[in-house]
Write a structure and sequence with these properties.
The protein has 399 residues and is α+β, with helices and mostly antiparallel strands. It has helices at residues 12-22, 54-64, 125-133, 180-192, 207-219, 245-250, 266-279, 285-288, 336-342; strands at residues 32-42, 45-52, 72-79, 82-90, 115-120, 139-142, 170-175, 196-202, 223-229, 259-264, 290-294, 302-303, 308-309, 319-323, 328-332, 360-365, 368-370, 382-385, 389-391, 395-397.
């Protein structure tokens, strides 16, 4: 009896295997990138521009329709015979001319519609290799654009703006290279009609980035920026090099109605939540308006929910975590990843610090708490990171 199944006469994987031997950039199924240019954005920030292969173009067009500001790519790079995977922020939006390029720049490279650009701070084995050693025309495997640090997290993004209805204001706070995912976010927010304010803390001030912000300020009256050079007191807000309640209030924003996107070190993010608690000590509204991304190297010592030092020895109520696909369950009174390993259950992971995103999976039901931000999830279907999530109720994961 016919069941609609039609086997492939020639397997796509086999075609890919043969094709990759003939030309390593060619693939039906695997997204790949070919390095075509490097640009210096600041003393410690390099942009890498890649040509995309057919599989990348086709999959991003059919599955995603492009990418959004704030997303990143997972690159798989081979260095001396060993493969390494790292995540890097995408600069700009799909089909958008990059601000440092004009019609005459890079005329010999691929069309902008078929390229993607990432920003990298040279630090560590893989980043140093990509920015300083990898030859032009080198090919790397890549994921499709990933990440939830996007404007979709604002409740009314995408709504049409009427003459009497203004989109909510957005405040972007970045520390150092945390500016990279925010570059595309700001451009997208301005094109959607948001009032946008940028607060950028850095030990160096890039003339190219300054030029970009001034251009946006000249063309968009709703865009305001403040560059705080942490070594130059003349640039400080409220007389301090660090984020403060006084500095945030000086922005003259309706903070209770402002969506805040922040990306930077653990110290910057912990400081932001502390400032939010100072401004609204009896109301969690401002804290709940904050969406964060981080490039830190360790879990924060600051417990956002209580405004106190986070003591990892405090007992957490034990709950059950159920892995639906594997039909396995285990008890958890710590992070879900640590509890799984204590029960001899292997889950995907990488950095264990909430940075690399390799542990991200889908939660079917149950409530979890992010130990870095103190935020408590809803009880429905959503994406979580097991290395920084603790179960607040029984939890079902789509794993």
């Amino acid at each position: 009896m016919a069941n609609g199944y039609r086997p492939e006469i020639i397997q796509r994987a086999f075609v890919d295997f043969i094709g990759s031997r003939l030309h390593p950039f060619w693939s039906l199924t695997t997204p790949k990138l070919r390095l075509i240019a490097r640009y210096e954005l600041s003393d410690d920030l390099i942009a890498l521009r890649f040509e995309t292969n057919r599989a990348f173009k086709q999959q991003i067009s059919e599955v995603m329709g492009g990418w959004q500001g704030g997303q990143y790519l997972d690159l798989r790079v081979c260095i001396e015979g060993v493969y390494h995977q790292r995540s890097y922020s995408i600069v700009g939006l799909a089909h958008q001319q990059l601000w440092w390029l004009d019609n005459t720049t890079d005329s010999n490279t691929a069309d902008q519609r078929h390229t993607v650009t990432i920003a990298i701070k040279p630090q560590g084995l893989v980043s140093d290799y990509l920015t300083k050693q990898m030859p032009l025309a080198s090919i790397v495997d890549t994921s499709l654009p990933l990440g939830q640090f996007t404007l979709e997290q604002t409740s009314i993004v995408g709504q049409e703006i009427s003459e009497n209805d203004k989109l909510i204001p957005l405040l972007f706070i970045a520390g150092g290279s945390g500016i990279t995912p925010i570059l595309g976010l700001i451009t997208q927010a301005l094109s959607n009609g948001h009032q946008v304010t940028l607060l950028h803390y850095s030990r160096t001030i890039s003339s190219k980035l300054q030029h970009q912000w001034q251009q946006l300020n000249d063309t968009h009256p709703d865009f305001t920026y403040h560059l705080i050079h942490t070594e130059d007191p003349t640039t400080y807000l409220a007389g301090t090099r660090y984020l403060s309640a006084e500095g945030l209030l000086l922005l003259n924003l309706p903070l209770a109605d402002t969506q805040i996107f922040a990306c930077g070190s653990q110290a910057l993010l912990a400081g932001l939540y502390k400032v939010a608690a100072e401004i609204t000590p009896t109301d969690e509204q401002l804290r709940d308006n904050i969406i964060v991304e981080n490039f830190g190297n360790a879990l924060a010592d600051f417990d956002i929910s209580s405004n106190q030092t986070f003591d990892k020895t405090i007992p957490v109520e034990e709950h059950t975590v159920y892995l639906r696909s594997r039909q396995r369950r285990f008890s958890s009174d710590t992070t879900i990843l640590a509890a799984a390993e204590n029960a001899d259950v292997r889950l995907a992971h990488g950095c264990r610090q909430g940075i690399c995103q390799l542990c991200r999976c889908n939660k079917v039901s149950g409530v979890v708490k992010n130990v870095q931000t103190g935020k408590v999830s809803g009880d429905g279907y959503e994406s979580i990171q097991t290395c920084i999530s603790i179960a607040m109720t029984d939890v079902v994961l789509d794993v």
